[in-house]
Amino acid sequence: MEMSSERGVHRNQSKVDMSVMADVLNHIDVYDPRFCVAVIAIIFNPFFWNVVARWEHRTRGLTRLFGGPYLACYCLGTLIILLNVYRSHSMTVAMKAQARWEVMASPEVFYAGAALMAMGSVLVVTSFLALGFTGTFLGDYFGILMEEKVKGFPFNVTENPMYWGSTANYLGLAFMNASPVGLVLTAVVAISYQVAIIFEGPFTEDIYRQRAQCCKHK
Fold first, then answer.
1. Among 165, 202, 200, 170, which Cα is nearest to 184's?
2. Can you tell me the distance from the alpha carbon of 59 to that of 14, in angstroms, rounded to the nearest whole number?
3. Cα–Cα distance between 195 and 136 in angstroms, integer?
4. Is 120 annotated as a binding residue?
5. How many Cβ atoms are within 10 Å of 215's Cβ, its own excluded?
6. Per-domain residue ranges of the chain
7. What is d(CA 140, CA 146) in angstroms, rounded to the nearest whole number?
8. Residue 4, Cβ neighbours under 10 Å: how many?
9. Annotated binding residue at 201?
10. CA dihedral sign, ordered 134, 78, 125, 162
């Protein structure tokens, strides 16, 4: 009897989960051009900066073009900032264009979103201050290496505070706007960042490993 009652509870929970998911999907139009633009912008950004940075590391093409690694890094960093501004704009447009979910339209959810945005902003700003412009925007790929790995806040909280802080900002924005499409777009952001980390982490470690080997041979 106990096992049959447990199965019944699990079935009921599954039905509730499916009904909630169906309700969320009813508020999302994946064929909306504004939603598609936002998804493309989210996926394109990390793909673009990883491809360009690896090309620079291999060829020093941008360094030659701009006459030095620092100016080249500043220019690429500025372009990345502009791309991220456009990504944020496209996500905001998509959220405003699609329906709100009344389940999320409560003061508690709104204030939770505000708290997420505050936390995310702290992670992003403190990460930038700890790394500096070149440390934040792929200076390693230009040969601008840091003397040692940053271990203080916020890197003692999470290894990639810039990425996860940005994700928290978007999740907070979705909460504050009671936007189910915002939740989906935030998930796309998180996945794209996770993929970027998989490629960036080992490559960056290899750059510093090569420097360490060169120092040993000197």
1. 170
2. 54
3. 18
4. yes
5. 8
6. 31-217
7. 8
8. 8
9. yes
10. negative
* pLDDT, one tens digit for every residue, the chain (218 residues): 444 544 544 555 555 456 666 666 677 888 999 999 999 999 999 999 999 999 999 999 999 999 999 999 999 999 999 999 999 999 999 999 998 888 888 999 999 999 999 999 999 999 999 999 999 999 999 999 888 778 889 999 998 999 999 999 999 999 999 999 999 999 999 999 999 999 888 878 877 777 667 656 55
- Tokens representing 58 are 């291999």
pTM of the shown model: 0.85
119 marked as part of a ligand binding site? yes
51 backbone dihedrals φ, ψ, rounded to 5°: -65, -45
Cα separation values, 47 from 24, 113, 121, 197, 217, Å: 29, 28, 23, 11, 35
118 known ligand binder? yes
Neighbours of 131 (CB within 10 A): 17
∠ Cα 104 108 110 (to 5°): 65
Residue 64 to residue 45: CA distance in whole angstroms: 24
